[in-house]
Structures are given as structure tokens and as C-alpha cells.
Amino acid sequence: QLLLCIVTFAMVLVPEAKDQSKAEKSRRRGLARSPTANPALAWAPDDSYTSVAEYERSIQDMVRQLRNSSEPGDTKCQVNLRLWRSNRRSLSPWAYSINHDAMRIPVDIPEARCLCTGCINPFTMQEDRTMASIPIYSRLPVRRLLCQVSSEVGHKPSGKKCHKKYQTVMETIAVGCTCIF
């Protein structure tokens, strides 16, 4: 019976794992999903937003929460274990500020700022400068405003019109902090 269980396992589960592995590799390469992949396991990070509007709305929600936060605006290098948010429980705590740029959509993006030069020692809960807190960066898609000057005949050089056009670009934003030696 043990031999029968092992053979069944090898025939049923191992090929399924190979199919899932192939599906994962093809997703990383940007190819279509394998039709044999389990739909519950087929989620990829790029599937998390269904539209640009939904993505921009989620950033606006984060900015709104940051502005309406009732938490103290501490800028001290300390860990607060009573707070549930990971940025204040980290050994490299950070605070958020609002990165404002009127020439992009979304105009406001929350950006992390490290509160410590060093890192918090978990045994003493004091800053240890033998380690360093550094920002973690991520590239976010934003729409940047480009101004195209029309070349219509009969316009004076000083009176050229500007046709607003947005182009999607990737912008580097600090999303958290971590410790390094």
C-alpha cells in the first residue's frame, strides 16, 4: 500500500507542480498563462489593479489616510510596538511625507523617510550606529505632463499655444527603510 501511495503521488502531484512551475516561468517572461495552471495559484502582482484609475485612486486613498492620521507625527528614532503599522515597528523606522508634483498624475504620492541614521538594537531598543538605515526604493508608474507647442501658421513666437499631453513614465519613490551592516 505504501508503494501504491508513492506511485500515485508521483503520477498525480508531481506533474501538476511542473505545470504550475512552467506557468510561473511564463508569467515572469510575460507570456500567456498555461491553461493547466490552477486559477487560484495564477495570481501575479501585475493583476492587482484592473485599471489606471483604480491604481491612482488607491494612491489618493493612501495620501488621504496620511493627511487624516491621528497618530503623532513623531520624527524620533524609536520603535513603537503599540502601533500596528510596520513603519513604526521596524528596526529601521520610517515616517511618510507627501511627495507633491503638480506636473504629474497622481499629484501627491506618499514617500518614506528614514527616522534613524543607524538601526534600533532589538535587545536595548536604542539606536545602534554600527548599522545603517537606508531607504527602499520602488519604481511606480505615473503620468507626467508634457507640453507640446503647436506650430500653427500665423501665430507669433510669443503667443504659441501649449497642448497638454500626459506620458506614462516610471518614477522612483522611497517606500520604506531597512537596516544594513
TrEMBL record:
It comes from the Eukaryota. It holds the Pfam family IL17. Residues 1-17 form the signal peptide. GO terms for biological process: inflammatory response. One of its GO terms (molecular function) is cytokine activity. The keyword Signal applies. InterPro entries: Cystine-knot_cytokine, IL-17_chr, IL-17_fam. It is found in: Secreted. Keywords: Cytokine, Secreted, Signal. Its main location: secreted. GO terms for cellular component: extracellular space. The keyword ATP-binding does not apply. Belongs to the IL-17 family. This is Interleukin-17B. It comes from Tauraco erythrolophus (Red-crested turaco).
